[in-house]
Amino acid sequence: MYLLLPLNRWSWLLLLGGVFYISAVLYWMNPGQLTILGFVLTSWYNIQLDSFLTALVVEPQLINEVASLLVGVNSSEQVSALLCFNRSYAYPFTMERWEFFSLQQQYAFKPIFRFSSACLGSPIIGYPMRSDCHLESSLSMFIMRIQATGLLQHWFVSDFNDAMRAGYVRLLDNDLGGGWLLSLLVFVFEHLRLNTGRSI
Q1: How far is CA 121 from its chain centroid?
Q2: How confident is the model over 21-43, as pLDDT tens digits?
Q3: Backbone angles phi and psi of 26, in degrees to 5
Q4: Any idea where the domains of the chain sit in the sequence?
């Protein structure tokens, strides 16, 4: 049962024995303290269960298997591999970087990179400020307004276009040249067939 997973079997048996022992001692000394014991044990179990359910549970064997697949590189090597669309590895992406790469692949016949649902979350970008800062409400309102009006997306696309014009990025062009040639031949063939069919 999933609710029993936060503790192993011996911990549960020790806890159960401790509950009976402490309950008997407290009842013999002062019956009113059983309520406090119940409150403490319930709170302790809730804390254990919450931390267990919110933490990433990974088996040690899985860590050893995944560790052999990880390759450590510095950021410049990773960026150059990403810009060359190197398909030899999987890369960690932030949401902002993924939007940038999805713009690079928007006209591709078959996109190379796909955003996996197995994500561990994006880093939260924040502005450190004091709790009593008078700019907090104005800054929050500004951020909400630029997102609501689409200015953030507009700036993102215009930054991508500027980077493309400057030669920092390029669009992924993996369409099949043979497909264009084949479609041109079919178009010419149909055009000639229609024109010859009308004249007969």
Answers
A1: 4
A2: 777 776 777 666 666 666 676 77
A3: -65, -35
A4: 2-57
